[in-house]
Design goal:
mainly alpha; 4% strand
Length: 569
Amino acid sequence: MKERSNMKYSEYPYERINLDEARQNMSSWLTRFNSAESSGEQIAVLKEVDESSREYSSYQAIASLNFNKNINDDEAKAEKEYYDNIGPEYMKIHNELDKAVNTSQFKEELAAEWGETFLKQIEMDLKTFDPDIVEMLKEETELRNRYTQKIGGAQIEFKGEAYNLAGLGPFHKDKSREVRKESYQARFKWFEENGEFFDELYDKLVKLRHKIATTLGFENFVELGYMRMSRSDYGSKEVANFRKQIVDHVVPVVKKLNQQRKEILGLDHLYFYDGINFREGDPTPKGTPDELVERAQKMYHELSKETGEFFDIMVNEDLMDLVNRDGKMAGGFCTAFPKYERPYIFSNFNGTDHDITVLTHEAGHAFQCYSSRKQPLSSYLWPTMESAEIHSMSMEFFTWPWMKEFFKEETDRFKYKHISGSLSFLPYGACVDHFQHWVFENPDATPKERKEKWLELESIYLPDRDYDDIAYAKSGGLWQGQLHIYQMPFYYIDYTLAQTCAFQFWMKNEEDSDQAWEDYYRLCQAGGSLPFTGLVELAGLELPFNDGCLEKVVGKVTNWLESIDVSAL
């Protein structure tokens, strides 16, 4: 496939895939595939199908991105709804080919061409889809979209102005305790006012996902959820053991960090809204968004030849939308257009240090996607999510030597906050995962019971958390602002597994930066050609599930934290 280049995002051709044409094409491919007399003929058919899939996923990604850029744009909304509506139908069209591949007399030759991962993906696709669930999948997408629109359209009154959720973010980190508390009160007041909406929506999603799972022959949604995440090499038992290690080895360290933070801030007690690390407030990036991007471009040229080439393309082809504005969906993500061999970074800069971590994080995703663009299958463009988060979280650490360009005199503060925050995140990530397992094992639980369970799990994973008198959070509703829980069930333990791997890259980079980068770049180029355990091995890392791995990593991180004189920061 030739390199696609020199087009800006706004110049990308876009069209609606015609379902009737797609059905006719698939019928032709199926006939040729089933009558093939050699593996070469079947491979040729699958390559044509793959090219078609690249086109479909590119147009679908453009439609989704344009809607996220402006959820109030009716035309963008219509295009996204079109692709949301045909998505399950498109899966149905490909389902027959998956069945043919799965029973092919040339399976060994197909595996030799593309690896075992190709066949495992198809096996999981066949277990997670059936024509009987098409209408339910459409309903699930519609419910997910309702969450997106509600969150993206939030307008919260605070100090005489209206803010969306990202716009309110800087006030949560204000050096004034009063401002922090009031901003969180405003945030949770909005959630409380819309509490019935969030309760009913999640209730519908849980029951619908349970019905999809039982229709497909699963006991509940848990196993189906793992398969949807393409987890072919581990299950809920391994994840439960990893969560236990977080409770045993991370929660005690986080308690010590909280005690230290209390002393730094000069407070008798820490409340949830005391989420800053220094009395003067947390470090902030110095410069306008354009200046920060210029510095990032210089940084990536100095980091490696490959990252310099990659980031030039991101800048020159307008493949980033970074700054918060009204009508823009909250959060940050990376998407891609396989037809054009390009990734895209979306975020919401709001003047906090998160602007830099989200930029380097999403650049890690985008760099991996760009590095694996020549993988022979579009399904290998991205790895599974816990693998993908290794690239993003590790990139945050590989860029450490340049953080002084963004934070100037506050660089040491940023690094301390970054490491302590990354470690302190692990219990929250495990709490979200544990909660989701319980929810789908108990699909008939009431909204009140879910909130009670959340508070119970918080007491295990986040025992220091105190919401003061903020009623909605005290009632167990905080999780409703975590979009993954609504949008992508079981996508959260991924961050904790990846963080454990990213810490290993951080440790490697401190010892031998050339070797660390070589391992990282090899991992990026592999894309999704291997499952999580295979990619971890390829990168020369230890598997987080292994007993002792997390304990060893936490020990190294804790030693670094204890070497810092926080009073001098």
